[in-house]
């Protein structure tokens, strides 16, 4: 809870679901907090390389980018929503069925 500075609560939910944009079955993981949230001017940039709100020497701005690429390589999605002052939510969807995209190839089986 680096961004939350140890204050607030984190809630983690997992559930069987289907991809929002298709009927691919999989698992959804939702991580929410009730912290400060992400400033509106930063939110559209959080998946850009080297974007960080941390002081020099404390972060490179690669964490979310790397996570997003790993999840995409597995045929999944990573989405972040936030209301400044009210926390943030990260939603991860990973496919589990045999018709999902092959890891790293983007091709269907």
In the residues, how many domains can be counted?
A: 1
The N- and C-terminal alpha carbons lie at a distance of 38 Å
- How large is the count of helical segments? 1
Secondary-structure content class:
mainly beta
* CA radius of gyration: 15 Å
Largest sheet: 4 strands, antiparallel
CATH architecture: 2-Layer Sandwich
Strand order of the largest sheet: 1-2-4-3
Report the strand count. 4
Please describe the structure with a list of short key phrases separated by commas or semicolons:
disordered C terminus; 109 residues; 1 helix; mainly beta; Heat Shock Protein 90; globular; 4-stranded antiparallel sheet; single chain
Helix and strand topology:
Elements: E1 10-18, E2 25-33, H1 63-73, E3 77-82, E4 88-95
Antiparallel strand pairs: 1-2, 2-4, 3-4
Describe this protein's structure.
The chain has 109 residues and is mainly beta. The chain has a single domain (10-95), classed as 2-Layer Sandwich (Heat Shock Protein 90). 10% of the residues lie in helices and 29% in strands. It contains 1 helix and 4 strands, in the order E-E-H-E-E. Strands 1-2-4-3 form a 4-stranded antiparallel beta sheet. It starts with 9 loop residues before the first strand and ends in a 14-residue tail after the last strand. The model is unreliable at 102-109 (pLDDT under 50).
């Amino acid at each position: 809870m680096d961004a939350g500075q140890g204050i607030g609560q984190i809630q983690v939910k997992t559930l069987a679901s289907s991809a929002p944009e298709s009927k691919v079955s999989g698992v959804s993981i939702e991580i929410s907090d009730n912290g400060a949230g992400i400033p509106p001017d930063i939110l559209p940039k959080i998946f850009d390389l080297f974007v960080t709100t941390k002081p020099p020497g404390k972060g490179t701005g690669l964490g979310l980018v790397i996570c997003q690429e790993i999840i995409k390589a597995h045929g999944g999605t990573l989405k972040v929503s936030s209301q400044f002052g009210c926390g943030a939510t990260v939603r991860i969807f990973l496919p589990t069925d045999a018709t999902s995209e092959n890891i790293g190839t983007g091709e269907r089986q």
